[in-house]
Design goal:
CATH topology of the largest domain in chain B: MetI-like fold
Organism (chain B): Marinibacterium profundimaris
CATH topology of the largest domain in chain A: Rossmann fold
CATH superfamily of the largest domain in chain B: MetI-like
Pfam families (chain B): BPD_transp_1
Low-confidence stretches of chain A: 344-348
Number of helices of chain B: 15
Order of helices and strands of chain B: HHHHHHHHHHHHHHH
Strand content of chain A: 15-25%
CATH architecture of the largest domain in chain B: Orthogonal Bundle
Family (chain B): Belongs to the binding-protein-dependent transport system permease family.
Oligomer: heterodimer
CATH architecture of the largest domain in chain A: 3-Layer(aba) Sandwich
Number of strands of chain A: 13
Low-confidence stretches of chain B: none
CATH class of the largest domain in chain B: Mainly Alpha
Strand order of the largest sheet of chain A: 6-7-8-3-9-10
Radius of gyration of chain A: 23 Å
Mean pLDDT of chain B: 87
Order of helices and strands of chain A: EHHEEHEEHEHHHHEHEHEEHHHHEHEEH
Distance between the termini of chain B: 74 Å
Strand content of chain B: under 5%
Protein name (chain B): Glycine/betaine ABC transporter permease
Bound molecules: adenosine-5'-triphosphate, magnesium ion
Keywords (chain B): Cell membrane, Membrane, Transmembrane, Transmembrane helix, Transport
């Protein structure tokens, strides 16, 4: 993988809710836990020493259970919430030092946001909602109309321009939400549980739509979810939060194969590994002794490799991208990857 | 000999009591006691023990003022600051007098065959419903038919001016309240006070302040009474705007005024309109009471009915007020329904 430039970088970020966060911060830095802090000082530890790099053109997924601080974290990126301590660098600049004008410019031009509850303006039409970012910048309807319509078409909402949000279904409303974010032409997109309010089928559709758009747009996307399947499907980089702290982050396949913590082992226990793991994650460099049964793509999941082998256990496949051989996958490796590795932890 | 003499004697205050024992005018109680005469035994049965009120204590000790000194003190105090107050309040409220005089003049002097169609046109503009227009037309025609056209126009004129001013000031006050909890904490008790004071009480200080012939006298009374709901509901409406939508507005970099005019006010509009409706209804109620201080209109006839025991006059005028109230309510509700329909989001 080519290492792309870091677009957004979070350094030692802390957020404590309460009347005297600075005093509580000292205690947290001295190692007090979230529960203890709440108990002793009735301050809520929202975020605890977060360090994440978000690369340009990638989808960074932040995952965690309810209350783990996901929404709090994403709202720091455009300073809807002010941190207690730490740095947030966008294109290498610390946005915490910015004044109101600069911050507003950032929100208007370089960061857009999609919300769990859609948060469309109920008194504006679909087209006006899609053009909200440009209208906020002072563009007239005539100026943003073409752009807004283009993105509405792109998300599959042609001909609904003059409807009001309440006339649309949830899935359609969220399409408007995505069109609104895209019309702003911001290169960073923040999505807070954008698909959580949708039913499973629509949700899969929307995930596919997002991946398809990303294929051509290469935005820097920060996506929040509490759903592991969704996280694994979308993530280039996966960050797992628990009680306001990062427990593990990295390539999703890597996390799946090497969970560093019983919390994550629990998380990944119920996943269909054959469908999620891909050939490139388990391939090895050394050529096998026997003959090569065929070629597979690095992004093929294990399910399709097993299908290709027709159940035979003694075959080996070459992983190729174009003409280049990247590595080899033996069926024995496949079988081993399907069960959880015995690790040092005892997952209860 | 009064009940509490002993008290002051034991406290050793007798000298103080008698120092400035100017023989003030006798109180009612003194007179009563004198006329009943007799049993000044000094021993009052416990059953008859008077509450140690100012008057009772004054009987025993002249240095303590009577209750009527308190009320007259208030009165002279008020009269004392009256001139200073008038210097400030008079010019400030003068436009109100002009507005009332001119609107009254326009609405009564314009021929009925221009005025009624104009009112119906306004009804259409606000309500967009032929049914409501027909209803209002029937009411105006009915009032005119029984020769109450002119008084009805006077009442309407006062309501239009006062309700307009209520909205003009009430909405900004409500917006300011919604943005500052501190201001809300200060203004809410004032609103409570304005709402609970009996309407007659407003009139008392106003009568001292202005001459009864000035229209602003009743104008101010009506406005003070009727401004409360529009302030309250504007504040409430803006505070109730969905926090998610506000967050989205922030996330897309809206300025405060973009947020206020593009999001908060439009979304609070149903509540604000409900406040306007209430304000209009309350000004109508007050306009009748304000007739006691020379507000023209239907209220004058109601008062005449009461004063001269002219049952028919009072009843017809009262009914006139009722139908006007219904008409105003329907028209404002129709506009409210129109706003709600265009954003049936809740
Ligand atoms: N304004 C606030 N005041 C006090 N505590 C807060 C505030 N906002 C969030 N918290 C606390 O911070 C923690 C993280 O909240 P957050 O909303 O970020 O969780 P989340 O991961 O987004 O959860 P969910 O999946 O339910 O949305 C919670 O314990 C919450 O109680
Ligand atoms: Mg959340």
């Amino acid at each position: 993988m080519t290492d792309k430039t870091v677009k957004v970088s979070i350094r030692h970020l802390y957020k404590i809710f309460g009347s005297d966060p600075q005093a509580a911060l000292t205690r947290v830095r001295d190692g007090m836990s979230k529960a203890e802090l709440l108990d002793k000082t009735s301050h809520v530890l929202g975020l605890n020493d977060i360090n994440v790099d978000m690369h340009e053109g990638r989808i960074t997924v932040i995952m965690g259970l309810s209350g783990s601080g996901k929404s709090t974290l994403i709202r720091h990126l455009n300073r809807l919430i002010e941190p207690t301590a730490g740095e947030i660098l966008v294109n290498g600049e610390d946005i915490l030092s910015w004044n109101e004008q600069r911050l507003r410019k950032l929100r208007r031009e370089s960061m857009s946001m999609v919300f769990q509850k859609f948060a469309l303006l109920p008194h504006r039409t679909v087209l006006e909602n899609a053009g909200m970012a440009m209208a906020t910048r002072g563009k007239s309807r005539r100026d943003y109309e073409a752009e807004a319509r283009k993105w509405l078409d792109r998300v599959g909402l042609s001909g609904q321009d003059d409807q009001y949000p309440h006339q649309l279904s949830g899935g359609m409303q969220q399409r408007v939400g995505i069109a609104r974010a895209l019309t702003s032409n911001a290169d960073i997109m923040l999505m807070d549980e954008a698909f959580s309010a949708l039913d499973p089928l629509i949700r899969t559709d929307m995930q596919d739509l997002l991946l398809e758009l990303q294929e051509e747009l290469h935005k820097t996307i920060v996506f929040i979810t509490h759903d592991l399947d969704e996280a694994l499907k979308l993530a280039d980089h996966l960050v797992i939060l628990k009680d306001g702290a990062v427990v593990q982050q990295g390539e999703p396949q890597e996390i799946l194969l090497n969970p560093s913590d019983p919390y994550i082992e629990d998380f990944v226990a119920d996943i269909n590994r054959a469908r999620v793991l891909r050939a490139r994650s388990i391939m090895t460099d050394r050529p096998p002794q026997g003959e090569i049964a065929g070629d597979v793509a690095p992004t093929d999941n294990l399910e399709s490799v097993i299908a290709q082998a027709e159940g035979a256990l003694d075959r080996t496949y070459r992983v190729t991208r174009g003409d280049e051989a990247l590595g080899y996958v033996g069926m024995a490796d496949v079988m081993q990857a399907l069960v959880r590795r015995p690790s040092g932890y005892t997952a209860s | 000999m009064a009940t509490y003499d002993g008290l002051f004697d034991t406290l050793g205050l007798r000298d103080w009591c008698d120092t400035d024992a100017s023989d003030g005018p006798m109180s009612m109680a003194d007179l009563m006691a004198r006329t009943q005469g007799g049993d000044e035994a000094g021993t009052t049965a416990l059953r008859d023990l008077p509450f140690p009120s100012l008057d009772a204590l004054h009987d025993a000790c002249n240095a303590i003022p009577q209750t009527r000194d308190l009320t007259s003190g208030l009165e002279t105090g008020f009269l004392g600051i009256r001139d200073a107050l008038r210097v400030v309040v008079d010019p400030l409220t003068q436009p109100l007098s002009w507005a009332l005089e001119n609107t009254l003049w326009v609405m009564t002097e314009t021929p009925w065959w221009i005025m009624i169609p104009l009112l119906l046109l306004a009804t259409w503009a606000v309500g967009r419903s032929w049914k409501i227009v027909g209803f209002v037309a029937a009411i105006l025609a009915g009032l005119a038919f029984v020769d109450h056209y002119e008084v009805a126009m006077q009442t309407l004129a006062i309501i239009f001016v006062c309700a307009f001013i209520c909205v003009l000031f009430g909405v900004p006050i409500g917006i300011a309240m919604s943005r500052s909890d501190r201001l809300q904490n200060v203004v809410t008790p004032i609103l409570d006070l304005l709402q609970t004071l009996p309407p007659f009480v407003y009139l008392i200080p106003l009568i001292f302040l202005f001459s009864v012939t000035e229209p602003k006298l009743y104008g101010i009374a009506v406005i003070l009474y009727a401004i409360v709901p529009v302030v309250r509901l504007t504040n409430l409406g803006i505070r109730l705007v969905d926090a998610d939508v506000i967050e989205a507005a922030d996330a897309f970099g809206m300025t405060k005024s973009q947020k206020l005019f593009g999001v908060q006010i439009p979304l609070a509009l149903p509540n604000i309109m409900a406040g306007v409706n209430q304000t209009i209804m309350m000004s109508l109620a007050m306009v009748v009471i304000a007739s006691m201080v020379s507000a023209p209109g239907l209220g004058i006839l109601v008062l005449r009915g009461i004063r001269n025991l002219e049952l028919g006059v009072g009843l017809v005028a009262g009914l006139g007020i009722v139908v006007l109230a219904i008409a105003l309510d329907r028209v404002t509700k129709a506009s409210l329904a129109r706003i709600d329909a265009s954003q049936a989001n809740r």
